Amino acid sequence: MAALTRLSKPTFSSSMASLLRRSLSSSAMASEPNPNFQSHHSSFSRNTNLVRKDPKDRNVQWVFLGCPGVGKGTYASRLCKLLDVPHIATGDLVREELASAGPFAQQLSEIVNQGKLVSDEIIINLLSKRLEAGDAKGESGFILDGFPRTINQAEILEEVIDIDLVVNLKLREDVLMEKCLGRRICGQCGKNFNVASINVKGENGHPAIIMPPLLPPAHCMSKLVTRSDDVEEVVAERLKIYNEKSTC
C-alpha cells in the first residue's frame, strides 16, 4: 500500500501554495522560472466563472498528489463515491481531449507518447473547462487528482478555489514502475485494472509491500488494452520528470 501523508487540513485563511511546498520542489521551479506564469494565472482567473463558496455550503474540496502510478486515482475514486463528489483527474482530462480531437489533441499526443509534462497552459485550460462544466451541472466539491503539479499551478489554483485538504501518496520507484507496467484499461467499458502482483519483502526497517492484482471481470478480460504511455521507457521518463519538478 502506498504511504499516505496528510499534509494539512488548513483553515480557509491559510495559503494552499505554502502547504504544497512541503511536497512540491520549490528549488526546481525557482531554477526554471515560467515566463508565461502571469498569462496562465490571469487566464485561469479571467476564464473561470467559479464563485468561492463558504465551506458550510459545499462539499469537500481536496487535492491528491503523488507520482504516476502511486494510486491517486484508486483512492480518489473510492473516496468520491463515499463523499458524493466528482473525481477530477488531469490524466483523464488529457485522454478525453485526445479522444475528442480537440484543439490541443495533436500537441498532447506528442507530449504523452514521450512521457513529457503537459504545459501549465493546456492543463489549466482543460481544468477550468471541467470545473465550470461541473458548476453548471450543480456539482458541489471535488477531489483533484494530479493537479497542481508545480508551485506555479498551486498559486494559480488558490486564486480561484479554496482547498480543504492536501494528501501526498508515496511509493518506492521500483514498485511504481511495476504498477504502471501492469495497468490495463477495458477497451469497451473504459474501467481501469492492474495485472501486476506485487510482493516485496520488508528489509532494513522498511515495511513489506503487498499489492494483489486488480483483475477485471471475465467479460472484460479479452478486451484489456495497455495505455500508450505505460511502456517502460515512457514511464521512466515520466518518473524522472516528476522527480525533477516535484518531490514524490
TrEMBL record:
Compositionally biased region (Polar residues): 33-50
Enzyme Commission code(s) on record: 2.7.4.3
GO molecular function: AMP kinase activity; ATP binding
Keywords: Kinase, Nucleotide-binding, Transferase
UniProt cross-references to InterPro entries, sorted A to Z: Adenyl_kin_sub, Adenylat/UMP-CMP_kin, Adenylat_kinase_CS, P-loop_NTPase
PROSITE patterns reported for this sequence: ADENYLATE_KINASE (PS00113)
Coiled coil spans: none
Name of one Pfam family that matches: ADK
Record's catalysed reaction(s): AMP + ATP = 2 ADP
PANTHER family: NUCLEOTIDE KINASE (PTHR23359)
Family from the record: Belongs to the adenylate kinase family.
Complex and partners: Monomer.
Protein name per UniProt: adenylate kinase
Organism whose genome encodes this protein: Cannabis sativa (Hemp)
Lineage: Eukaryota, Viridiplantae, Streptophyta, Embryophyta, Tracheophyta
